[in-house]
Design goal:
Elements (H helix, E strand, L loop, with lengths): L1 E9 L4 H16 L7 E5 L3 E9 H17 L6 E3 L1
Antiparallel strand pairs: 1-3, 1-4, 2-3
Length: 81
Amino acid sequence: MIATIRLKIQKDITPDREKKILKLKGSLITNGFTDIVYITDEGLDYHINHFTVTAETKGEALEFIKSYVSNHGLTDLVTVL
């Protein structure tokens, strides 16, 4: 079974924080959670990043995201939907 994970990410961020967001998405790919992260606009202030995972790896992927966001000080920029 396939599950979708959606992340709401602010658009207006500093270059340093943008790099951290890109590294998060790259880490999701290199760790084998997904092959691609899709990006859509959500109004003027946010992007929605979404990707699919297997039902078996969804919990692990969510824990990875929450840990990464917390450890890199991105809790005010990234929301898991």
